[in-house]
Known about the structure:
Layout: H1 7-11, H2 13-28, H3 35-42, H4 46-52, H5 59-76, H6 86-99, H7 101-109, H8 114-130, H9 138-158, H10 164-187
Amino acid sequence: MIGGLSERKMKNRRFRQTEEKIFDVYFGTKEDLRMKELARRVGISRATLYRHHCAISKILPDYEHYIYKKFLKYVKCFDYEKNLNIRLFYYRMLSFMLSYKKEFMVLLSRGETKTIKKMIEVTRDLVSLKYNLPKNSEIIIDIYSSEILSVIEEWGRRGFLEEDIDKTIVNIIYLSRTARTRLLPLVN
């Protein structure tokens, strides 16, 4: 595979350092860059740049894909935890996003929410399976999902704040419990 990001490539220290420079220059400029100009500003050859990304238009999708794959790998480990409650589940999801806050800020600043929505959809399915929620409880999961998306969009507007996670999760759980007590009788 020429271009693109993979777990194997990102484990290589030199590749990762070059990728960070590409990321900073590409996403740090408001103007449209061509591959030649991007390589010059990063201080690498065009051949090196093409080993990282096959086209300038693929840089953002490469990051989206890489983050999404990392997220899938991250949430896969949740299956093996016996005592993982719903609060901790969402806490970990938001913590993952905080660990990639630079990348998520770029995605959000460019109006790219497709990857974030896909991640929320994955967690939505996992929550439904893991917590054996009633089949008619989609509305409750939708509330969790929309609240999480709202938090992420707010982070995009004012920056990612680690101290917000606990308060946010508690508020989401409280709101969803309130909604559950009100909505489940209507759903059943």
